[in-house]
Specification:
- The protein is of the alpha+beta class and 96 residues long.
- It has helices at residues 21-30, 60-65, 82-94, and strands at 12-16, 35-36, 46-48, 72-76.
- Strands 1-4-3-2 form a 4-stranded mixed β-sheet.
- Helix 1 packs across helix 3.
- It is globular and about 40 Å long.
- The mean pLDDT is 88.
Length: 96
């Protein structure tokens, strides 16, 4: 797996774990630096599974319109040392 960080000031990243919801949840559970909180733009790195949290009340049509699937993961990158963040993402991806 490879995550390409965009150039610029973005700190929120949404992506899919292609092999499904179980893998997405395992990835989230495997993260050590990222806290599981449904807020954004904190100084801490955060992760959520929108399908079962922030968007769980939406209809299937609304979810599709927002491009939210069971394998969607959303990260908010904090101020931790970037190598620590990348190492955490790598080790969590390796577990799925």
């Amino acid at each position: 797996y490879k995550i390409d960080f965009p150039k610029g000031a973005a700190s929120i990243f949404t992506f899919e774990i292609e092999i499904g919801q179980v893998a997405a949840c395992k990835f989230i559970d495997s993260l050590e630096i990222f806290s599981r909180l449904a807020i954004v733009a904190d100084v801490k790195s955060l992760v959520i599974h929108p399908y079962t949290t922030t968007h769980s009340q939406m209809t299937p049509e609304e979810l599709a319109g927002q491009h939210i699937t069971p394998s969607t993961v959303r990260l908010s990158i904090g101020t931790e040392y970037i190598d620590d963040i990348l190492d955490d993402l790598d080790q969590a991806l390796a577990k799925v």
